[in-house]
Amino acid sequence: MRRSIIVSLIAVGCLVFSGCETTNSGTTQVTGKTRSALTEWDVDIYQNPAGLLSWVPDMDIPVKFEEIAKLESSGTTASNSPSAIDDKTVQIVTDLKKRAARMGANGIVLREVNVAEDVIERQSSGYENVRFPDGSIRQVEAPVRISYQRVYKVTIKADSVFLDWNTVWTGESTNSN
């Protein structure tokens, strides 16, 4: 009975800690008029200041746009691979585009990208099989093992915006009054 409880606890612990990556849906603060939903493919990405993310092309930000909401999203990755941080930023930007599209925004303006590094301590314990001198194999309680792992947290802040393509470059209204 005791062994089955411990095995169950170990299994739950493995499930909890096996997903070393997370993406938080973040926060949305609506500041303007929402519109009919679009798809994430309808949402363009702009950066202010330019160069926040090297894989996002630097496009000129239109002169005129309407802010719909302020967005923030974050995620963590426990990989030491440099590409893991890029993969995480792609996931976060995709999340921001989807949220902007649901509000009818056809653009997002990335305002801030932060990457923070932390080290976490992990403890593991359980049972392991041991062969005894008489030839028998029995499970014995394993000592607690401590390991350390780097974790990177990426946070991106952006504005979701609506661009009226008739006025974005000139800033002039198309109304003839």
Brief digest:
Helix content is 21%, strand content 43%. It has 177 residues and is of the alpha+beta class.
Q: How is this structure best described in words?
A:
It is elongated and about 90 Å long. A hairpin with a 5-residue loop joins strand 4 (107-131) and strand 5. Helices cover 21% and strands 43% of the residues. It is α+β, with helices and mostly antiparallel strands and 177 residues long. Residues 1-20 have low confidence and may be disordered.
Q: Catalogue the unreliable spans.
A: 1-20
Strand order of the largest sheet: 1-3-5-4-2
Distance between the termini: 83 Å
User: Which class of secondary structure composition applies to the elements?
Assistant: alpha+beta
Helix share of residues? 10-25%
Instruction: Give a count of the beta strands, DSSP E runs of length 2 or more.
Output: 5
Task: Assign an overall shape.
Answer: elongated
* Largest β-sheet summary: 5 strands, mixed
Rg over alpha carbons:
24 Å
What is the strand content? 35-45%
Please report the number of helical segments.
Answer: 2
pLDDT average, as an integer?
81
SSE layout and pairing:
Blueprint: H1 2-18, E1 22-30, E2 44-47, E3 66-77, H2 82-102, E4 107-131, E5 137-162
Parallel strand pairs: 2-4
Antiparallel strand pairs: 1-3, 3-5, 4-5
